[in-house]
Every structure is written in C-alpha cells, then in structure tokens.
Specification:
Elements lengths: L6 E6 L2 E6 L14 E6 L5 E6 L9 H4 E5 L6 E6 L6 E6 L9 E5 L17 E5 L1 E2 L5
Parallel strand pairs: 3-10
Antiparallel strand pairs: 1-2, 3-4, 4-7, 5-8, 6-7, 8-9
C-alpha cells in the first residue's frame, strides 16, 4: 500500500521521476502499466498484447510499438481492446505470421503513446519474445 511519505517512480511522457508522496497524493494511481506478454493466435493475423492493467492507446503509440518476426517486416494497426479482458489490446497485422516464425515485441515510449487511465506511460521495453500459436504454413 502506497502511503504519504513513500518514494515512488512516476512516469509521464516517457520520463521517469522519483517523487515523495505528499498529503492528498496517496489516492493517486501510481502503479506503472507494464508489458506482460504477447500472443499470436492460430489464425496468424493478429497480435494480442497483455499489460498488467487496463491501458489506452494514444495517438503516437504505433510509432513506438514494433513486432519483429523472422519473416518479412510486419506492420501493426490497432484493432480493439479485448471485450473480456481490459488488460489486452488487439492489433491486426499486415501479413500472416507463419507457424515456423519466431517473433518479439519491443516498445519505445514516444510520448503520447500507450498509457493507463491515469496518464502513466507504459515504459520502453526491449525486444521480448511473444508466443506464436499460428498454424499458418
């Protein structure tokens, strides 16, 4: 439980800043939204991205989010939030990911990118493997 006097890290517009909570700031949402994992389902044409909490896609989000696959370049387009889990964003892919491919996701917070409902930015993360469940050949 975060309480008055605790030191926390607040991320806004891609910049981390250590702050000491003052009276009245205790109820703020200071849990930083982070990437948990990604899955390419059997159809191979979407990417499901899981965060630790509900997130919002900002106007600059796709500038920072990149899927690196072992085949040709892949471009992402935001499709929707998962209707049964608000922590999952769904992105369409401009080509099929084949069953034989490996893939990883990376994100560079561009400012105006993916945030939580309180405006905390998803921090930059290096290429992280995603699960490829594609059955496409």
């Amino acid at each position: 439980m975060v309480k008055e006097g605790d030191w926390i890290t607040r991320v806004r517009d891609g910049v981390e800043k250590g702050i000491k909570l003052k009276r009245g700031e205790v109820n703020g949402d200071e849990v930083i939204p982070t990437f948990v994992g990604g899955v390419i389902p059997s159809d191979g044409n979407v990417l499901r991205v899981l965060f630790n909490k509900p997130t919002i896609i900002g106007p600059m989000s796709l500038l920072g989010l990149k899927l690196q696959a072992s085949g040709p370049i892949v471009h992402l387009a935001y499709l929707s939030m998962d209707s049964s889990n608000p922590n999952i964003m769904i992105f369409s892919l401009d080509r099929l990911i084949l069953a034989s491919e490996t893939a990883g996701l990376r994100y560079t917070q561009p400012g105006g990118g993916i945030t939580d409902e309180s405006g905390n930015d998803v921090p930059t993360f290096a290429v992280t493997p995603v699960t490829n469940n594609s059955t496409q050949v």
